[in-house]
Specification:
By secondary structure, the chain is α/β, with parallel strands linked by helices. Helices cover 35% and strands 29% of the residues. Strands 5, 6, 10, 11, 12, 13, 14, 15 and 18 form a nine-stranded mixed sheet that branches. A six-stranded mixed sheet has the order 8-2-1-9-17-16, with helices on one face. Strands 3-7-4 form a three-stranded antiparallel sheet.
Length: 373
């Protein structure tokens, strides 16, 4: 691309690619800095809500039903009798469990066929640089942005498993206060409506996570089967296992300028991290992309005279996203802390609260609507 770029996006993950496609629709000249190709053994899966599905469907990047399994029921167990059940109010589902490699491949193909997106091997000058490099963003560090981090005493262990019992489109989650600390186990349905596979996300104290990784495949599957109370029958590990530390984090500043006067903005995991217990991580990153694209689109009407790097436009994005995300940050962090508290009276209170919440239909409906959007 010989002409100077309007926007340079550093990071070609799912948030970066989605943003590139949204901005190319506005006829902006976009450069997307690509990274080394990923291996084929990515075991991640994401729970995406209706807002994310609508966005990706609009971009013609939504996977087929085999790789985007609709969740019809979500069942959550506390650590001493607490239980909550969410049933989908529509045949569409509460959310969708999406196979990450498939979604990444569809976004990559869409980028290849978009003439206004240039794939770059290094950052290039642009009126606006969007940093989508993930939680370990080097650009954010070079800019001196304070990344406020609160480490949890937990690591996530992820893998793929197959059960002898079909998942029946159920997302299953258990909270358990073990001898080493809080454990949160989630089994998310994969393979379509009739599937028997699941994505595992097991949040464990660091030493327990390391011990689980050290087990051979049959021993790991047996431990997982016990922890999930055999709900999916006999389990078989079908992939390698991955592990990473969990944290709550957010950047103090999301916008700024380089020495040459051009603007920069943060999005996705470069701007915020959250505990996976509610399955909202990628949804929040895609919401960043949609919000930034919406703000820049205002240049087509009332703000036609502003540039893509205009500070007033970018401040709108920063204020809107911080305000929208604050309740989510507080809720997820509070839940994690509530279940991590070891005192028996707190344990009794949280399990009583779960069961009480399960009996309040109007409150459950409201909570589901918020999560779906």
């Amino acid at each position: 691309m010989a002409q100077k770029l309007d926007v340079c996006i550093r990071g070609d993950g799912m948030v970066g690619r989605t943003l590139a496609l949204l901005l190319a629709r506005q006829r902006l000249r976009v450069g997307l800095v690509t990274s080394a190709p990923k291996t084929n053994d990515d075991v991640r899966a994401y729970s995406l809500n209706k807002a994310s599905r609508d966005l990706l469907t609009e971009l013609r990047c939504w996977p087929d039903a085999q790789h985007a399994t609709a969740v019809q029921d979500m069942r959550v167990w506390g650590d001493n009798g607490g239980f909550v059940h969410f049933a989908s109010p529509t045949p569409e589902g509460l959310s969708w469990i999406v196979d990450v490699p498939v979604l990444e491949a569809q976004l990559a193909e869409a980028v290849r066929y978009q003439s206004d997106i240039a794939c770059l091997t290094a950052p290039a000058p642009a009126a606006l640089t969007v940093v989508c490099e993930g939680r370990h963003s080097s650009t954010r560090d070079e800019l001196g942005v304070n990344f406020e981090t609160l480490p949890y005493q937990q690591h996530a262990v992820a893998a793929r498993v197959r059960g002898s019992v079909p998942h029946r489109q159920q997302a299953l989650q258990w909270f358990h206060q073990g001898s080493h600390g809080l454990e949160i186990l989630a089994l998310l349905p994969l393979g379509g409506a009739q599937g028997d596979s699941a994505a595992l996300v097991w949040s464990l104290p660091p030493e327990r996570a390391s011990a689980m990784l050290a087990l051979d495949a049959p021993a790991f599957a047996s431990a997982l089967q016990d922890a999930s109370h055999g709900v999916l029958g006999q389990l078989e590990l079908t992939s390698e296992r991955a592990m990473w530390p969990l944290q709550l984090a957010r950047a103090e500043r999301w916008i700024g300028t380089f020495a040459d006067g051009s603007a920069w903005v943060l999005a996705g995991d470069a701007a915020h991290n959250i505990h996976p217990l509610a399955g909202l991580g990628l949804n929040l990153g895609l919401a960043d992309a949609a919000a930034l694209a919406h703000v820049l689109k205002s240049r087509e009407s009332a703000d036609y005279w502003r540039s893509v790097g205009d500070r007033h436009l970018l401040r709108r994005y920063e204020r809107a996203r911080k305000a929208d995300m604050l309740p989510t940050w507080v809720a997820c962090d509070s839940l994690q802390r509530l279940f991590a508290h070891p005192h028996a009276s707190v344990q009794a209170l949280r399990n009583w609260g779960m069961s009480g919440f399960d009996s309040l239909a109007p409150l459950k409906r409201w909570a589901m609507q918020q999560a779906m959007q």
